[in-house]
Amino acid sequence: MSKKHVVVSLSGGMDSSTLLLRCLKEYDSVTAISFDYGQKHRVELERAQSLVDYLNGCSEKAEQDQLGTITVVGKNYNEIMYRQIQLNGLVDLLDSALVTGGEDVPEGHYAEDNMKATVVPNRNKIFASITQAVALSVANRTGENCDIAMGIHAGDHAIYPDCRQEFRDADDAAFRIGNWEAERVGYFTPYLKGDKFTILQDGEVLCEELGLNFDEVYKRTNTSYKPIKIVTNGFIQTSPENTNWTSPVVTWYSDYKSASSVERVEAFIKLGRKDPAPYADETGPVTWEHVVTEVTKVLESHNQPTSNGISWVETRTY
């Protein structure tokens, strides 16, 4: 039996996007919110919007008869209510490598001490307060309980103090002290004992259960803290003699050197699937095989072999 209401903080990354799928599977009413706080990797907001548009477009269940007539026979899930919250007035007030104007985002593994530069002061507290307010408003408006879905998992890093359990406990206590009817709000944490790989595994299962295309879902996610923008001139060949130039085409690529990207690539290696998101480096677009080779070097240097020490092998036809 489906649960009623849930609010998801959708970053546009792999974890929260998979969490969104899980919520579509388990809840009747899903509200998703994203935050624009002036992050350099603002492409994640574009990907989040694109994902929601794709998912809402797939919400209806249809059948085709022998004559090719398509008939809507029900719903795979209810459409998502989605909002992007503007906090970008904070951009020059926050000290972090992740916000516009900050230092360069460091490369390497999360085990590196310099990854502290990617901490955004009090980010999760800011996001949590707004998410709690939305969830409590849903509960009060409907007279029914509402959960907050969280993608926290065992692989969350101690480098981020606001990912620690003691922070979450204190934050929840403050929410309940500061609000009437706060008992109507609960939490949904399906990945608490998993990691990025198990989250991606769940995403694969959910795509099958919800009638979604795995590649279409995950190409609409961004995990890179150092996305690369490549601008190319577009053209339309109207005839063998004539070519009409169009506006420049902007394509965002993931890097494979920042810690967030390394973890994403590792999860896809373990899953045995090619990541549908495009990758590039300072030389331009690169192949998936190149990405796997370079990330495997980083993982091996930190004694974290991929897939039980076995190098990646393409096991599927694309």
Structural overview:
- 34% of the residues lie in helices and 20% in strands.
- It is α/β, with parallel strands linked by helices and 318 residues long.
- Helix 1 crosses helix 5, helix 5 (196-210) crosses helix 7 (259-271) and helix 7 crosses helix 8.
- The longest helix has 20 residues, at 123-142.
- It starts with a strand and ends in a 17-residue tail after the last helix.
Radius of gyration: 21 Å
Note the beta-strand portion: 15-25%
Helix and strand sequence: EHEHEEEHEHEHHEEEEHEEH
Strand order of the largest sheet: 5-2-1-6-7
Helix percent reads 25-40%
- Describe the largest sheet: 5 strands, parallel
Task: Tell me the number of strands.
Answer: 13
SSE diagram, text form:
Blueprint: E1 3-9, H1 14-26, E2 27-36, H2 43-57, E3 60-64, E4 70-75, E5 81-86, H3 123-142, E6 146-149, H4 165-177, E7 185-188, H5 196-210, H6 214-218, E8 228-232, E9 235-237, E10 243-245, E11 249-253, H7 259-271, E12 279-281, E13 284-286, H8 288-301
Parallel strand pairs: 1-2, 1-6, 2-5, 6-7
Antiparallel strand pairs: 3-4, 8-11, 9-10, 12-13
Helix pairs in contact: 1-5, 5-7, 7-8
Name some characteristics of this structure.
318 residues, alpha/beta, two-stranded antiparallel sheet, 34% helix, 20% strand, disordered C terminus
